[in-house]
Amino acid sequence: MRFGPRRPADAIGGVTVHSLRQNGLLLKKGTSIGPAEVAALEHAGVAEIVVVQLEPGDVSEDVAAADVAQAVAGDGVSVERAFTGRANLFAKRPGVLVVERAVVDRVNAIDEAITFATLAAFKPVVEGEMIATVKLIPFGVEGKLRDAAVLAAQGGALRVAPYMVKRVGVVSTQLPGLAPKVIDKTLRVTAERLAPAGAVIIAERRIAHDEAALSAALKELLGLGAELVVVFGASAIADRRDVIPAAIGAIGGTIEHFGMPVDPGNLLLIGSASGVPVLGAPGCARSPVENGFDWVLMRLLAGLQVTRADITGMGVGGLLMEIVTRPQPRLPLAEGGRKVAAIVLAAGRSTRMGGPNKLLAELNGTPLVRIVAEQVMASKASRAIVVTGHQADKVEAALSGLDVSFVHNPAFAEGLASSVKAGIAAVADDADGAVVCLGDMPLIDSLLIDRLIGAFDPDRGGLIVVPVADGRRGNPVLWSRRFFSELMTLDGDIGARHLIAKHGEAVTEVPVDGHAAFLDIDTPQALEDARRG
Question: Which PANTHER family does its entry note (predicted)?
Fold first, then answer.
């Protein structure tokens, strides 16, 4: 293949290497030069143009890309028509992408002109998803290099393994303190994981966390025709002799591997009984967020064997995204337990009240903001921070005599988020968390705040604590320091509800009675209703 500058008349049959614009002529990169192009170049006064010209034995970029792509494509893979030296490969069906890394490496080692890239091995893919691409760097390549790449790809470098397992049994073991709704959520999350594979839960059993009970449940589900059984333990598997592996062994099953170098997902167990895979799920499998459980589950659904070598080879790339419920280095607890600051938001303009500052409105002779502050002071909160803004001097006067710290928010007109950020920024470094209270919720009392603080348990994943009644979440909300950086990104006049939804696995709900956690005084009518009690 010849490369370099040519006079237009000598460039016939070549392909332009660069786009050219001169005297009204636009010739794009990759244009084949023929008599018409020569005439246009000469008319525009172009004396020289850089082209690539194929020589005997060379093949064009599109031909080479197409030939290599066809060679690497295995079962369940289709190849798109090559264009500009690129041939893309797509999944013909849903399944798990199986990549022969040695073949990919061989193809890429032939010559720098030929490149072959794929998605990650064992990635679940859907029909029509692009899974790989073959790209030729130059505009052509020696035929012998194309032939070598095709030979290197002999046998196919990638295929899509179709989902084979459709019937899944689920066992949930129970211990005191495990709420039924946790199991309900786990089943919903599991069903969503199985759906892309066309698999369904044919039966689920909830039993005591006991070897005998679990053995019986496993036998029952296998007898019902389950092609895969997943066990969610009420307590994490701690040893090969623990309840779940012991129950698998008791029915004649075997344990292939316990533990995996993927985090989250370390405590996964792979076993089998009567030729059917049995998975002991790690705790993170209750969350819809990707974890090591997904890596193994999808392979098994595609009928792929997962060996000990497969598991131990997952360490590179096995540290997945940070999960908020992962335990942090433990620090000695301060005397009296964890330190939780209280933030009272009292900066708003009360626009829905039609003029008066609602925080200064009185209920039983006491300003609303003072009622809230006094309850905070009576609680176990370590410190009270009041964020002021609109009519700051009057709000401070209403709280005179109370041992609170004031933080002024000069950006209060921008909305609630600015006050949350001002309060969070003022929390002392030694605080483990902060409970954010609204200054217009006078029915919140110290007992509720104390209940939120009592339920705050970072070591067990209780990082966000909210009051709830009839499935509805209210205020105030207690936030672990882990979320302070995210709270500092809030904007506008909305709160942090989306963060609660985002980190659902970190939420602890505290049941409450009545409407105290939901009543905020936003309108004159709401104030009158509160006064009538």
Answer: MOLYBDENUM COFACTOR CYTIDYLYLTRANSFERASE
